[in-house]
Design brief:
The complex is a heterodimer of chains A (612) and B (223). Chain A is an alpha+beta fold and 612 residues long. Chain A has 24 helices and 21 strands. Chain A folds into four domains: 130 residues, Jelly Rolls (Sandwich); 122 residues, CBS-domain, CATH 3.10.580.10; 147 residues, Beta Polymerase, domain 2; 149 residues, Four Helix Bundle (Hemerythrin (Met), subunit A), CATH 1.20.120. Chain B contains nine helices and five strands. The chains are: A alpha+beta (612), B alpha/beta (223).
């Protein structure tokens, strides 16, 4: 007798312990002392000796280092205290119960004996140990190179030249200093930048003299970044602006310059690489091949602890690059376009909020000068880009919201009419369209066309409370679950039973609240976070509501990201269906509070339009 | 008062008894009421029986585990299958102990010796003394001439006292072991295993003590 069935069953299911046999499990179980800790009480104190392996049986704890930074959170089934036990060193991190917790304290000598008797068990804990030693406190921003400050990327003092110096002098200095761009100053004030390419295209190619002053060929008001910005922010700026050099300023003073190669130097699997490679492809097949690296990139970003906002931007930046390159490939094949046009990204791509699983939503806005005969060209262009995106993994929009659909390939004036109609004569279909089309962003071509359209939308929408009210009502269609444990939203379709659709019941309600509040505030901002902040600033939302919704969005996006990452790692197609078994009780609790925040905000939205 | 009464009864039992194990049990001084919970040794115990009447039910199995140093020490976990005097009866379907299994168990007298030895110098903890403690009293009286003279902590009574003292608490709440455990966010166990039930009772007591802190620090706060 003396069997402890429930204890043995729990222990044998723990990672590492699942490699042991029945007799070993029994020995391990009998060596356990069980302790109960109220939330807030300290389980392991920094600096103390530790002779036990600690296992969370129920509840949750936080581990913090001496500086007070959060190292990790542990919940049911997680071990802690193994670094000090295995290294026979004092405890490094203080562990504090954040919920009432039942802890199994396993005898350290028994644990050591198990490690000696099973090599695989030993390997498991050595790996766990090295993971923990490598992990720093959980960052709010990216790990690794992306989380460095821009100032750490600067490898040399800035190379500058006075605006009145000749182009020849500038070229000589650039050659001597082995730089591909030089910063231009006027009376010591930073005023422009000249690159190798500028000298080739603006001087040599057009037959100008090398004696003309640098001032004549420099790019004025160049984009710059502050020295304390994070490297990933600099990377994003360079990707979005399609530039290779970024001057770094400290309170307006030049302190250096970073180039794309500075990133290459420090990080091999960086999105910049991918964007760079995308822009070099001249065929759809080439793009498809490059896109194969996207899952790996997403995995590395998630592994690097990127948050939902960052990952959304990264993924969208890459989709944008692919879209642009497909437009270029199309233009190369079809010749110059007969008139100006703008390739417009809609939906999540428009909002910079794409995830690993995204289909395509896009449209073409043509110059009002376009004539019917021009459509032949744009039809062919749309076909190339839509097919290309599908081949690259952005499957065709199930609702046919794509530029290849003639309805969504129209001159600006028709687009203005569309929106005017949707807003002033709302119908169910109009509301459905509005949800996708209000998140529009020019990805390629003449952005002025899109700006003009947005201005007209904003004017129409702001004056039309009825339309906003209907949108608000429509936004109630998808509601978050009220409770996570007993009132779980199940899809009745059968395929995804017992799972929660994070997109429909978590992200979309927040996106819709943000869109409506921003429209009501007359804001054209496009990302959900910016819309919420702008709405708060305009008094449409309280600051607290806005920041709570942003936190909720952050959590849900993070869960989706990790969920999809697990699927990518397992070689599966990513989806939005989270199973509650995938997340710890603590996360469930957090998710539950995120959902209740969304519910409260949905109710407030109804109130706002007197619909409650 | 109760402690004094218990001490006197133990003195009398010591004088009357000739059994060395029982004599050693009643001879050992009782733990002081002021003993801190972390310094005390408590025996958490559970019995599977053939019925619910302590005057007639037989013991089928018994399990116990010690709380010491404020922790449930699983190295001290012990359980015994007990050979009943009658047959197992219809409750076999509940606890899974058949005549064949219990037939291989120890005699009830042997079980009582082991229980008495474990309880020497310690405090007994049960969930609902009405059944387990009364059953042990009966067996003890038959074997040694007096009931089981030991201080008892009853987790059910402890919770009941709290709910009736605080009228705002819902006193219709179930005081069954699994329900009380759920109330304290303790994990769900399979049930109907006397040793796991003993562990479950022990964990419940830890949770109750922790949640009553700082009003509950000594044994005297728990009797």
């Amino acid at each position: 007798m003396n069997e402890l069935p429930d204890v043995a069953r729990f222990v044998s299911g723990l990672p590492g312990f699942d490699l042991l046999d029945e007799a070993q499990i029994k020995t391990a179980a009998r060596s356990i002392q069980i302790g109960y800790y109220r939330a807030g009480s300290v389980v392991l104190q920094t600096g103390r000796d530790n002779k036990q392996l600690h296992i969370v049986r129920s509840g949750a704890l936080e581990l913090r280092n001496v500086e007070g930074d959060l190292v990790t959170r542990v919940a049911e089934g997680d071990c802690f205290g193994f670094p000090s036990l295995m290294n026979e060193s004092p405890v490094r991190n203080q562990s504090v119960a954040i919920e009432d917790s039942l802890i199994y304290h396993m005898d350290g000598t028994v644990f050591s004996a198990l490690r000696r008797s099973s090599e695989r068990f030993d390997t498991h804990f050595i790996r766990l140990l090295s993971d923990r030693l490598l992990s720093r406190p959980l960052p709010t921003k990216l790990h690794g190179a992306g989380n460095r400050q821009v100032s750490q990327l600067i490898s040399r003092s800035p190379v500058t030249i006075d605006a009145s110096a000749s182009v020849r002098d500038a070229a000589t200095k650039m050659g001597d200093q082995r730089v591909s761009a030089i910063l231009v100053t006027d009376k010591g004030e930073f005023c422009g930048i000249v690159t190798d390419r500028d000298i080739r295209t603006r001087v040599v190619a057009v037959g100008k003299s090398g004696e003309i002053p640098v001032r004549d060929i420099m790019s004025t008001n160049p984009v710059s970044i502050n020295f304390d910005a994070l490297a990933y922010e600099a990377a994003l700026v360079m990707m979005q602006k399609q530039i290779h050099h970024l001057p770094v300023l400290d309170h307006g003073n030049l302190v250096g310059m970073i180039s794309r190669s500075d990133f290459m130097r420090i990080e091999t699997e960086h999105p910049l690489y991918l964007v760079n490679d995308i822009s070099k492809q001249s065929s759809v097949q080439g793009l498809v091949a490059v896109c194969k690296r996207l899952p790996g990139l997403i995995t590395s970003q998630v592994g690097a602890d990127a948050n939902g906002e960052q990952l959304g931007k990264f993924v969208t930046t890459i989709t944008d690059a692919i879209t642009r390159q497909l437009c270029r490939i199309g233009e190369a094949e079809l010749g110059s376009p007969p008139c100006d046009y703008a390739w417009v990204a809609l939906g999540s791509q428009g909002r910079h909020e794409q995830s690993a699983k995204s289909d395509q939503d896009n449209a073409l806005v043509l110059n009002d000068a376009a004539i019917a005969a021009n459509d032949e060209y744009f039809k062919a262009l749309a076909r190339i880009v839509n097919d290309g995106l599908d081949a690259c993994g952005y499957v065709y929009c199930p609702g046919d919201v794509m530029a290849s659909n003639p309805k969504w390939r129209q001159p600006l004036k028709v687009w203005k009419d569309y929106f005017h109609q949707w807003i002033t004569v709302p119908s169910e279909k109009a509301l459905m369209h509005a949800n996708i089309f209000f998140d529009l962003r020019c990805v390629y071509g003449n952005a002025v066309l899109v700006d003009e359209l947005k201005t007209s939308i904003r004017e129409d929408a702001k004056r039309n409370e009825l339309f906003l009210a209907l949108m608000a009502k429509n936004a109630m269609f998808f509601q978050p679950p009220l409770g996570f444990f007993r009132q779980f939203v199940l899809e009745k379709s059968g395929e995804h039973k017992n799972t929660l659709d994070l997109k429909l019941h978590g992200i979309m309600p927040i996106v819709e609240i943000a869109r409506i509040r921003a429209l009501a505030a007359g804001e054209v901002r496009i990302t959900t976070r910016n819309r919420l902040r702008a709405a708060a600033k305009a008094g449409e939302l309280t600051e607290a509501d806005a920041s709570n919704l942003i936190d909720a969005l952050e959590l849900i996006e993070k869960l989706r990201m990790e969920h999809q990452n697990r699927q990518l790692n397992a070689g599966k197609k990513p989806d939005n269906h989270l199973s509650p078994a995938e997340i710890s009780p603590l996360v469930r609790q957090n998710l539950k509070s995120a959902f209740s925040q969304v519910s409260v905000s949905q109710a407030a939205l109804l109130n706002r339009f007197h619909l409650a | 008062m109760r402690r004094l009464w218990l001490a006197l009864r133990r003195l009398r039992a010591w004088r009357r008894s000739s059994d060395p194990v029982y004599k050693a049990f009643v001879e050992r001084p009782l733990p002081q009421r002021g003993t801190r919970f972390e310094d005390a040794e408590l025996v958490c115990l559970d019995i599977e029986t053939t019925g619910l009447d302590p005057e007639s039910a037989d013991m089928l199995s018994i399990g116990w585990v010690l709380i010491r140093g404020g922790k449930v020490d699983l190295a001290t976990a012990e359980s015994l299958i007990v050979r009943p005097l009658g047959d197992v009866g219809h409750t076999a379907s509940v606890h899974g102990l058949t005549d064949t299994i219990v037939g291989q168990g120890v005699a009830p007298t042997e079980a009582m010796y082991r229980v008495i030895a474990a309880l020497t110098g310690r405090v007994l903890v049960v969930h609902y003394a009405g059944l387990d403690k009364n059953l042990l009293d009966r067996l003890c009286r038959a074997q040694f001439g007096d009931k089981l003279l030991v201080p008892v902590i009853d987790t059910l009574a402890l919770e009941h006292r709290r709910t009736s003292r605080h009228h705002h608490l819902d006193d219709t709440r179930s005081l069954r072991l699994p329900d009380l455990r759920a109330h304290y966010n303790l994990p769900r166990y399979g049930g109907h295993d006397c040793l796991m039930d003993a562990v479950a009772t022990a964990e419940l007591l830890l949770a109750m003590v922790a949640s009553r802190a700082p009003d509950c620090q000594t044994l005297g706060d728990l009797y």
